Amino acid sequence: MSKILVVYYTHTGNTEKMAQAVAEGAKAVQGVEVELKRQASPWKLADFDAILIGAPTYQHNMTANIRKLLEEIAFHEVNLEGKVGAAFGSYGWSGEAPRFVLEVMENKFRMDVLKPPLLIKYAPDEKGLVECRKLGRDAAEKALKST
Ligand SMILES: Cc1cc2nc3c(=O)[nH]c(=O)nc-3n(C[C@H](O)[C@H](O)[C@H](O)COP(=O)(O)O)c2cc1C
C-alpha cells in the first residue's frame, strides 16, 4: 500500500479543481491510499510515499503558505529523499509557482520528481482535468513501484 498526499492552496478555486482531479487520478490506481488537503504539517509529510503540491501563481511567485510549508520542511529537516514529488497549479500569464515548487522538491529535498510541472491557465477545462488525473495516476504508479 502506497500513501499519496495531494496538498494545495487556492484563492479562487482553480487549483482546487485541479487538485480534486489529481486526487481522483491517483485513487484510480489499485493499492494506494490518497489524502487531499488544503494544509499539511511538515512532519506529516514523512508518512507519505508521494507528495503532490498544488500551487497557484500570484505576483510571480508561490503563495505565502506554500512557501512556508517548503521552508518548514527544510528548517525541521524532514527527510523526503527518494519520495515521489510532483507540482501543479493554475496560472494566468507566467506560472512560476509550480516550477519553483518542483525545483525545491528536486534540488533541496532530493525527491524523485515527475517533470515537467503541470500548469493550467485559469480554470481547467475537460482536457485540463484529464491531464490532472493523469498526473495523479502517474505519481501513484511511480510510488507503488518504488515501495
Ligand atoms: C492579484 C493577482 C496576481 C496574480 N499574479 C499572477 C502572476 O504573477 N502570474 C500568473 O501567471 N498569474 C497570476 N495571477 C493569475 C492567477 O494565477 C490565476 O487567476 C489562477 O487561476 C489563480 O488560481 P486559484 O484559483 O487556484 O487561486 C494573478 C492573479 C491575481 C488576482
Instruction: Calculate the terminal CA-CA distance, rounded to whole Å.
Output: 8 Å
Distinct small molecules bound, one entry per kind: flavin mononucleotide
Instruction: State the CATH architecture.
Output: 3-Layer(aba) Sandwich
Assign a percent range to the helix content.
40-55%
What's the SSE blueprint?
Elements: E1 2-8, H1 14-27, E2 32-37, E3 50-54, H2 64-75, E4 84-91, H3 96-107, E5 112-113, E6 118-121, H4 126-146
Parallel strand pairs: 1-2, 1-3, 3-4, 4-5, 4-6
Residues 10-15, 56-60, 90-95, 122 line the site of flavin mononucleotide.
Please tell me about this protein's structure:
- The structure is a single chain.
- This protein has 147 residues and is of the alpha/beta class.
- The radius of gyration is 14 Å and the shape is globular.
- The protein has a single domain (2-146), classed as Flavodoxin domain (Rossmann fold, 3-Layer(aba) Sandwich), CATH 3.40.50.
- Helices cover 40% and strands 22% of the residues.
- It has 4 helices and 6 strands; from the N terminus they run βαββαβαββα.
- Strands 1, 2, 3, 4, 5 and 6 form a 6-stranded parallel sheet that branches.
